[in-house]
Write a structure and sequence with these properties.
The complex is a heterodimer of chains A (452) and B (297). Chain A is of the alpha/beta class and 452 residues long. Chain A contains 21 helices and 13 strands. Helix content of chain B is 72%, strand content 1%. The radius of gyration of chain B is 24 Å and the shape is globular. The chains are: A alpha/beta (452), B mainly alpha (297).
Amino acid sequence: MKMKKVMALALAGVMALSIAACGGGSSASTSSGSGSADAGSADAGSAASGALTINIWDANQQAGIQEICNDWTALGNPEVKVEVIDWDNYWTLLEAGASGGQLADVFWMHSDYAQIYMENDILLDLTDYIAKDGVDMSIYYPDIAAIYTRSDGKIFALPKDHDTIALLYNKALFDQAGVAYPTDEWSYQDMYEAAKAITEGTPDDVYGYALNTSNDQDGWYNYIYSYGGNVVNTEKTDTALDSAESKAAMEQVRLMLTVATPQAIVAESGTDSLFQSGKVAMITQGSWMINSFYTAENSKDYAWAEIPYFDRNGDGACQKDERWTCYNGLGWAAAANTANPDAAASLIEYLCSKDAQIKQAQLGVTMAGIPGISEDFANAFEGMDVSAFTKVEENGTLYARPGTRNSGKWQTPMKQAGYFLDAWQAPENPQAMSDACDKVAKLIRDCIAEEQ
Amino acid sequence: MKEKKKMTPREKNEAIWGLAFVAPTMIGLIVLNFYPAINTVYQSFCKTGDFGKGNTFVGLANYSKAFADPEIWQSLINTVKYAIIEVPLGVVIALLLAVFLNGKIKGVSIFRTIFFLPMVCAPAAVAMVWKWLYNQQFGLFNNILHTNIAWISDPKIAWISVGVIGVWSIIGYNMVLFISGLKEIPGDYYEAASIDGATGINQFFNITVPLLSPTTFFIVQTRVIGALTIFDLMFMVMDKTNAALPKVQSTVYVFYKYTFDQGNKGYGAAIVMILVAFIMVVTVIMQRAEKRFVFYN
């Protein structure tokens, strides 16, 4: 009998302990399954101290941002906790939080979704804080600041950064195939010839280039704009994806696909994994991914070159309007219903202040939302020359990432079967790519019409 | 005819306590199950606005669009194909395992634990591991068997690959239920049968299977409903740009796509209502089958 009592008490104790541990554990976890719920419970648990929660989607940036936030905390402000929710789930969770009312205090805003969030008053209006604290909006990239300004002039997020695209290549594979390294004077045709030579000059499972339908901003979008087409025009009223220029660009993409890794393999593994496994010699990537390649196992073999150009006027040299790179800028926004609007606004202003932006660049987190800080960023990666990202801003033209009010409606389907995926699966067939361009153009037009 | 009796104070007291104990579950059920279900039905008749604001009633527009959409019919076929792999294979293999693990062999509890372990693993973890097992370039299967099969990218076999994951995860659960059902069969039947000269296989088909039919029916019914609502396997194992996705995505996957990715909750609600109607039809058919195939003592 005594044994039973002891066992019963012990079991009850273990149960109580595990419930307490679970409660404590869940508020520290960063699993996507309960992102906004965690933010809620973390707030509830530390509401007394007024700690702020930040949601971001890029694990590469977490450490740097946490450091900058700690600087802000040291100035006599509440604690800040940075949580990462991966990109695929970030918007779903944010929307669930916005509908259910339980958002993180401060979070990243993206050009694809900014309009919807601003129009529905989900974000904290920062205009008054900016006026009161004397924040100078003119120091930021004007295009990026404009993304987060509502049509009535109110500002809902401050520019956090900007990014550009460059060409990443593996010197070891180039040496193996005996091909000369990419230069800053490469055209897309030069890239094709190098990719072809590498695909043929290396073992069967190694290719010169890899591109998936999902590599839009960092991949095929740039071809289209270099050739003179567009994905969505700047007024967001129409697309030129079925124009002759865009189709010529996608035809060049098709040519690249004939010497690139088959789409089935890329869909399963991803271009980044394939590159880091030494199966692909060249990919184009964005400046937000530099850290992942800088810290990779074989990073001494990796190098960056400027994104190629398309020689539109045939003069053999690159003019500024022949080299295009997509650029995008995230914004720091706060929830309209946050418990600490003053603290949240103050944190956002700090994160976007010149000093914090310089520190962000120096830590190699991303390139600043303020022009003129590129040097600090370029120097952040010792041993890896990342100047390709900043040189393109002088040598080329930047275009804002194309989007409409509800970009999700066309951005995912266009990469799947029935649209561009069919063309990717049949790279030997030029007609397939041309048909895909027509279909996606129609998709985008239908989505724009629905939004009116 | 009995006249309605007033409850004695004791009966009233018991009734109140009964309600009090049932209340937590009832409240949870109503708030978390009934209310959302009714809300979903309502939303299926609406064109929903952003973030749940501004729903406009549109009648049957979502349903007519859903019925005309070949993607949704294909997803229903995919879901049924998945159920056809998971349910029979899961039941048969689990039954065989249960019969073997019911006897007196050494280390029987270790075996039972091993077979039950997949149930303990988080579905996301299971999907991640299988995704890399199936990977065409780096996966274990292709590297051990020296083949180059596109397990999850070939539209012809991707659905089988996903079904295999489903079978693997559910065998343990089915097996445990079968073992408990087997324990209820009195040993006398087997003794009498072996005296009469019945072989092991004869005994299995003539004693075990009929007497196990209530358990089997329960497992088949719950697994069919579970298989028809499958989502996480396809979502985690197959990338959005996977060429085989249209031939593998389940109806709940399509529902997720429209409701969360594209923010069209009304359409998504209509899709899920169609699935509910389909499952109800299947359940009715199974109830009819119960009367014919299941033997209760």
